[in-house]
Model the fold of this input.
Amino acid sequence: MNRRDSLAALAALCAAPRAYAQSLPPLRVAWLAAVPREGFGQLFFGSFVEGLAALGYVRGRNLYLDERWSGNSPEEVERQAAELIALKPAMIVTAGAAARAAAKTAASVPVVFGFSGDPIDAGLSTDFARPDRNMTGISFMMLDLVGKRIEILKEVMPRIGRIAVLSNQLHPGEPREYAVTREAADRLGIEVSYIPFKGVTEVESALAAALQSRADAGIVFPDASTTATSATFAAFALRHQMPFASGWSAFAEAGNLLTYGPNLRIVWRRVAYYVDRIAKGARPAELPIELPTTVELVVNARTATALGLKIPLSVLLRADRVIE
Done:
């Protein structure tokens, strides 16, 4: 192949996504998120849009996204859902707790969710394999990873004797997550101080209780409230020399010791798959609810140094990312 032919082939390859986008019919999708757009919200929204683009849906060409963010109450989120339905979208995509608002108001349109809790406990479905409502999507709650987080924390802190478990009781599936956590800690000979709280407004009081528990470290269940207050946890950890581990990378990126859990960037790109399938005629009941297939270990080495901890080589070699 000569240079001219090579350039022509490259140009054709670059043009292929655009041509595919033009061949797909216009699609109107409503986006409903019960979190602020800034920061973490923008991260997973951007990943979702990237996933759609990879499937040929390009905003401004054949994709129209109507967005609503961060209602101040469940009632406000339900009102936003009703506003979106009035725009007659092909479907609604929800992030976090907004799925529960959509369940109440969006019976007339398909709903695709990215949901941190247990969708069955939340009433979004009664079955992962065969969703029985107009809703399907991905749940981020991976109970088989809970014990692994504690094992990794013990590798970093071999003498750990007690952990504080900080858990948002408003999070669907929370009792299941705590039960698995307790079993893992018992297996490793670690005592547990259970510190439940209800939403962002009670995080500070939960941290005060963690300090009173005299725990060596903390396990924080990942959800929107603990991610939104990641910096609060990180500042507390440095002030009181109490490291925290959780499940989503944003928690480590904010200055906490480590996270082990689903790669949410990949998860949100996968949510786009559901949109594509429904846009092409599939019903939510035909699309099983999935769990993430890609997990990541993120270690904040800078925080470890500040806390006087040495990350073992065995952990560093397994880490997908080390924050220096």
Remarks:
- DSSP finds 13 helices and twelve strands in the chain.
- The chain has two domains: 3-140+264-293, 143-262+296-323.
